[in-house]
Each structure stands twice: as C-alpha cells, then as structure tokens.
Amino acid sequence: EAQVTQNPRYLITVTGKKLTVTCSQNMNHEYMSWYRQDPGLGLRQIYYSMNVEVTDKGDVPEGYKVSRKEKRNFPLILESPSPNQTSLYFCASSPPDNSPLHFGNGTRLTVT
Amino acid sequence: QKEVEQNSGPLSVPEGAIASLNCTYSDRGSQSFFWYRQYSGKSPELIMSIYSNGDKEDGRFTAQLNKASQYVSLLIRDSQPSDSATYLCAVKFASGGSYIPTFGRGTSLIVHP
Asked: Residue A22: which residues within 8 A CB-CB, separation 6 or more?
C-alpha cells in the first residue's frame, strides 16, 4: 500500500530534550515536506526537500532540523524543544510534478 | 511570495444544501489545484484535483477553475453532517523545474441537520 508513515503518533516530552520524528514514504517520491498545524494558522511549512541531500527552509524553520540521506526518509529533529513547538505535525510527499501531496497520519507533540 | 487565500469561515449550511467554498491564488503560472478535506486532529485527505479551466465533477463534489480570475472553488451538493470539516485549498506553482505546493489556511464547514 502506498503510504507516508510518521512515528510516533503521540509524543509528550520536556523542554530541552532532543527528539526525532520519523517520516518514511514508499512511493519513490522526490519531494518531501514537514508542516506544523496550530489552531487558526493552517498548515505552515517547516522544511522541504526536493531530493536526496537537498533541503530548504519553509516558513517556520526556527528550532527544527531535517536531513535527507535517503530518498524514502525525511526525519524532523528538534534539538532543544520548547513549549511553543507544541503542535500537530504532518509529513507529506509527492513527485516533483503536478501530482498532489500525500500526507502522513500526523504526530501530536506536547512539550512541557 | 506565493499566496493562497481562503475565507476561514465557519460556513454553515443546512443538510441537503449546496456548500460553496472559494479560494484565490496569487501566481498566474500555477498549474495544479487541489482540495483537501481535514477532520479535526486528522491528516488532510485529497478529494479533488483540477488542472484546466472549467468544472470537474466527482460524485457530490464539483471543482471549478478559472485561471484568468485566479480562482478555484469547490461545490458540495446535498451536504451531509459528515461533510463538516475544514477544507484546504492547495496550489502547486512552478519553481526551478519542479512544482512547489502552497496551502490556504482552510475554510471550516458546518453542516447542520
């Protein structure tokens, strides 16, 4: 089954404790992206990647890191999480053409 | 800056009515347009894609695209309470040989019995 898999689905952590949210897709898509979603603010892009070893900042990259060492994986890293990073996170992928984005199931992150 | 604008709503319609959701975009070179439905706390689900001017129908959903006016809409006929959700408009614009998606903030739809 073609899918984008995010893990974990839920995560509660404390300020300053490094964490990684994984994202993997099995559709051989070049483009991958991370979004955060907060009430009233819609989907805001954190980082995106056009292909392996090619990443770019989105609209809200501060406090986040990404890497794209393999085509299928695009992990999101929070080196020192803060409470303002409490949010719902989505990973998405697509081919580099006009095709639509495919979304993962989301990760609900709470930082206390 | 590529922008996609939607009225945040909520748009409230009675069961059985037609719901009309609208979206405007800033980049005239945009090539592809999508509507996603998102239930609270869930991931966006693709419901319609449209690439050329005119109407595209799929069941109770009709997407309408007018590139000259930079306007795309979604009509939901015979609205049901289960259609209550946030609807996201997404536009892909060309950038360096690839296509980058931009999302609107979404319109909240409430269908009341």
From this structure: A5, A6, A7, A73, A75
Contact B103 A90 (CB under 8 A): no
Please list, in sequence order, all residues whose beta carbon lies within 8 angstroms of the beta carbon of residue A1, skipping any fewer than 6 positions away: none
Distance from CA of B30 to the nearest CA of A (A): 10
Test B99 with A103 for CB contact under 8 angstroms.
Answer: no
Question: Residue B28 — very low, low, confident or very high, per pLDDT cuts 50/70/90?
Answer: confident
Q: Residue A98 is nearest to which of B41, B51, B106, comparing CB atoms?
A: B51
A51: which chain B residues are within 8 Å (Cβ-Cβ)? Answer: none
Q: Give the integer Cα–Cα distance in Å for A36 and A41.
A: 9
Q: What's the one-letter identity of residue A56?
A: D
Q: Which residues of chain A have pLDDT under 70?
A: none
